[in-house]
Amino acid sequence: MAANLRRRAEAALSALGLTGPITNEQIKGILEHDRGRPIVVRTAPAKVFTNAACGAWLEAETIDVILVPDDADPMLQAHTVRHEYGHMILRHQGGASSIVGAETLRELVRLTMPDLDPERVVAMLGRASFTGPSERDAEMIASLLTLRSVRAADVLENAETESLRRALGGSGV
């Protein structure tokens, strides 16, 4: 079962060209192009996340917003963003109604996206929620992207080291 899950996740990543070392910013750019709208990542007060959720994706016609807890470790925030990217890659519908209550969601929209109508967002997000297999699938995507982001950091570090070595006339660093 896990091998099949990984194969499906790898195929979804390959379909978007997400194959080698890659950063969250590069993933964001590819998804913005694929989805035809900007993706905004924002922090939100940790108290709005319930049911052990670490983040939320709000999908609208003209924008995607990913929310992560403001008190989370930066590495957890980055992984959470990749998890939400996983939902986008797998073509799930974005919604936070199962993560936060309607009143909390209204407050969250007012705090983080003052240009959007909170009532419209709450109504839109009430249309669907995902648990179980979709969360597992998105987490597999996030894990694979995390491995690729670590490789990207290694590639960047090696390139920077090599650039520094050349700038110093080939001496060891």
From TrEMBL:
<protein>
    <recommendedName>
        <fullName>IrrE N-terminal-like domain-containing protein</fullName>
    </recommendedName>
</protein>
